[in-house]
Structure formats: C-alpha cells, structure tokens
Amino acid sequence: MSSLNRLLYFNCVVEKGSISEASRIFDVQPSSISRQLAVLEQDLGVRLLNKTTRNTGLTEAGRKYYEFSQRIVSEFDEAKRAVNDLQEKPRGQLKISMTVGFGESVVLPLVARFMSLYPDIDVKLELTERVVDLVEENIDVAIRSGRLPDSTMIAKRLAFNNFILCASPHYLARKGSPDSPDDLIAHQCIRYSYSRWKDWFLMAEERTKISINKAISVNSVNGQKQLVMNDTGLALMPFWAVKNELADGSIIRVMSEHTFSPYEELSATYAIYLKRDLISPKIRVFLDFLDENIIDFDL
Q1: CA 98, CA 106: separation in Å to the nearest integer?
Q2: Are strands 188-192 and 214-218 parallel, antiparallel or unpaired?
Q3: Which CATH number fits domain 163-261: 3.40.50.720, 3.40.50.1370, 3.40.190.10, 1.20.120.1460?
Q4: How far is CA 201 from CA 167, 181, 250, in A?
Q5: 160: helix, coil or strand?
Q6: pTM, full prediction
Q7: pLDDT band at residue 298 under the 50/70/90 scheme
C-alpha cells in the first residue's frame, strides 16, 4: 500500500467522519482502511484520529497533518493534470470578455487567425464596458484597462494606452489648432462617457485637470473616432484606437509635446485571468497568441 493511498484514506475519513463511509467510497473493507490508518499513525509516531462507536474525529496532531495531506493530494492531482495537458490539444470553449474599444480595434481583427490555428477551440466573445466577475460568469480571460482588482487574478499587459489629443484635418482647418491646453476651452471636445475616462488631465510634474467648456459625450471609443473623423471636435483617445488613421492622415495629433490622460495616472490594457497553479491549454495559447500578434502601440 503506497503512502499516497494512505493519505487518500485518511483525508476521506476526516471529510466523511466515518471509516465505514470511506470504505464504501473506496470499495474496500473497513478493516483494510483501519489497518492503513494504523500504519500511518505508527510511521508518524502520533495518534491522528479519535475513534468512537459513532464517529471519528481529529486529534490536534491530526488537524495539523490534515492541512498538509490536503495539499499533497491536491498537488498530486495537479501533477497528473499537467502531464495530461501536455498530451492534449487546446480545446473546448474559450470565453473572453473585453472592453468594446480595445476589442473592436485590436482583438477582433486577430480572431480569424487564432481560430485557424486552433480549430478545436470554441471562441465566445463578449464586448462590454462593465467589470465582469470571472468566477461567477465563468470567464476565462477578461481584457480591460486599469489596475489588477484582486490578488487571486493575474494581469498580463497587452499595450500601453498612450492617450493622444487628436482631431480631423477639416476641423482644425475650420477652428484652428490649439497651441496650449488652455486653448481647449474654446474648442468642441468629445468626451468618452465611461466614468474613469471622462476627464482630461495634463500629465506634467503636477497633474492638472483641463477645463473644457463645450463637450459632447459618447459611450464608446469607436464612437469618439467616428465623431472625430466627421469633423465634430477634438478627442482624447488611446493611440491603439487611431494608429491607422494617424498613419493615413485622416486624423491628426495636436499638441504632441504634451502628455495627456483621462485620469490622474498613465494606464495600460491587460489580459486578466484567474491565478491558478496550472493554466488550461486553451487559455495559455490564447495569451501567447496575443503576446505574439499585438503590435507595438508605443508612441
């Protein structure tokens, strides 16, 4: 009888409170389990269980030993899963929640290639600005901007947001280009109505909130971009959302000598997943794919 089997018997007796119940689960005689528990106690030189005719309870030493035996059995199971995962292709449903702007601008254009590489993964995408609960909603990966909210999660940075102030050439030709942040008070500005992105700050040695007089609000990054391209006004937008338009000249960056942000810190967008000893193959290959295929969004 291996030491691991003795631990399995011991854990089961503790959790079920009965040798007879454990014998039923393992389909062995109660006397066999009793003998193995006795060997375990003899090896340790200490009594682990207090047995009565009605139930079985732990001694103080038994409680301490049970804490470790749980971990040992759990790690053994993890080891078996790790070996099995190496032999398996990534497969199953992969549920991804992402912010609308980053999803539409960066992730969705990559999905077809990911699916061609991993045809056994069933991809389910949700684009939303709300903060999802990964456990309750069974989300594998959440893509969002901001800080890591929970120590039980891991955040993998995908891109710095690098907010820039921008407008269309026609708007600037009509209204003139602002020379300083103070000039923005005379311009039509396009805010993103998400609560943490609605204000504009000048990121100098001292963070300064910029005064905006005329503003229109919209609840999506792509909505901001459409308004900018249709000559509505100036917008503060992440570089990843307008990189192509800056390259072709349909959007122009203004006051490039300044650094701006919609809140009082610089930020990035992260892939967030639950902290586990082992990551399932479908999550691992998706994270690796993003790392390899998201281009550099540094200014």
Answers
A1: 11
A2: parallel
A3: 3.40.190.10
A4: 17, 9, 25
A5: strand
A6: 0.65
A7: low
